[in-house]
Amino acid sequence: MFVFKRRKEREIQTVKTMIRMYCKAHHHPEGEMCEECAAVFSYAAMKYLHCMFGEEKPVCTVCPVHCYRPEMREKIRVIMRYSGPRMICRHPIMAVDHLILQFLSKRRMDRYLRKVKKIRRKKEERKAHSA
Questions:
Q1: Cβ count within 10 A of residue 131
Q2: Mean pLDDT, the chain, integer
Q3: Per-residue confidence at 109, pLDDT binned at 50, 70, 90?
Q4: 30-64 per-residue burial string, b: 16 or more CB within 10 A, e: under 16
Q5: Does 58 reside within a domain?
Q6: pLDDT-derived band of residue 78, with 50, 70 and 90 as boundaries?
Q7: How many domains does the chain have?
Q8: pTM
Q9: In-domain check, residue 98
């Protein structure tokens, strides 16, 4: 059942489901995730949990900060391209929830950009004081 209280938990579960769908179709038809896909999930979950935006994080596709390493970003992009269209039929509630979050993330982009600028300004001030 897809009932979670916290948004990050929902997003992590959605990513896990998408990675499992991809892995089942491309690597392990018996349903368990292979090591490579498990590593991608572990990396994605870690990034979600440590996101600088906290509970109000945007969906990663519209985020102004790209925190994934390039090779992991490409892997998750391939997984999302495969699983995304299939989510509507197999997991419609997760898919609609993600689409709503994507819409809201785009509407809140100004807020995210202000936070990024504020954090960068603080980092620059720290560098200036330590130099």
A1: 5
A2: 85
A3: confident
A4: eeebeeebeebbeebbebbeebebeeebbbbebbe
A5: yes
A6: very high
A7: 1
A8: 0.79
A9: yes
Are the C-beta atoms of residues 21 and 90 closer than 8 Å to each other? yes
> 42 lies in a domain?
yes
pLDDT of residue 1: 42
For residues 43 and 69, give the distance between their C-alpha atoms in angstroms, rounded to a whole number.
10
Q: Specify the residue for token string 């392990």.
A: 28
Burial of 23 from C-beta contacts in 10 A (0-12 / 13-18 / 19+):
buried
| Host domain of residue 103 | 7-130
One-letter amino acid identity for 103? F
- Block residue for tokens 């490579």: 36
| Six-digit token string for 120 | 């960068």
Looking at the domain assignment, is residue 1 inside a domain? Answer: no
